[in-house]
Design goal:
This protein has 125 residues and is mainly alpha-helical. It has a single domain, classed as Four Helix Bundle (Hemerythrin (Met), subunit A), CATH 1.20.120. It is 71% helix and 5% strand. It has 5 helices and 2 strands; from the N terminus they run ββααααα. A hairpin with a 4-residue loop joins strand 1 and strand 2. Helix 2 packs antiparallel against helix 3 and helix 2 packs antiparallel against helix 5.
Length: 125
């Protein structure tokens, strides 16, 4: 399982936080597991497409895919890429700072895939 490790304490941290979703779902773990499954089948695919679109400098596609992924990243509180997905959406839409977007898309893709690994582990998927 991929985690962020705090090197001072040696503590492992999940890359996401489902507490807000748990509250919204009234603690319904079966539904939460279903949402994790939906994440696994959609977000890594969208992220891979976004990374490829950024390499191809297809900025409208990058913006569209970032916009599509943003609510999931926000609702799962994947803090390490919240600002990045917003930047990808806005900067690709406005075609500004495009020289930075491929690197940001790659970072988002790496985190998205690490979250997928953690979800598979947590929900036994």
């Amino acid at each position: 399982m991929h985690c962020i490790i705090d090197f001072e304490t040696g503590t492992r941290h999940k890359l996401y936080d489902l507490e807000r979703l748990k509250e919204l779902l009234g603690g319904n773990m079966e539904f939460l597991s279903s949402l994790a499954g939906i994440y696994l089948t959609t977000i890594p695919v969208n992220s891979k497409e976004m990374t490829q679109a950024s390499v191809n400098e297809d900025w409208p596609r990058v913006s569209k895919l970032a916009h599509k992924m943003k609510p999931t990243i926000e609702s799962m509180n994947i803090e390490s890429i919240l600002a990045d997905i917003r930047t990808l959406e806005a900067d690709a839409k406005n075609e500004v700072n495009t020289h930075k977007l491929a690197k940001l898309a790659l970072k988002v893709d790496q985190v998205v895939n690490s979250v997928a690994d953690q979800l598979r582990y947590e929900f036994n998927l």
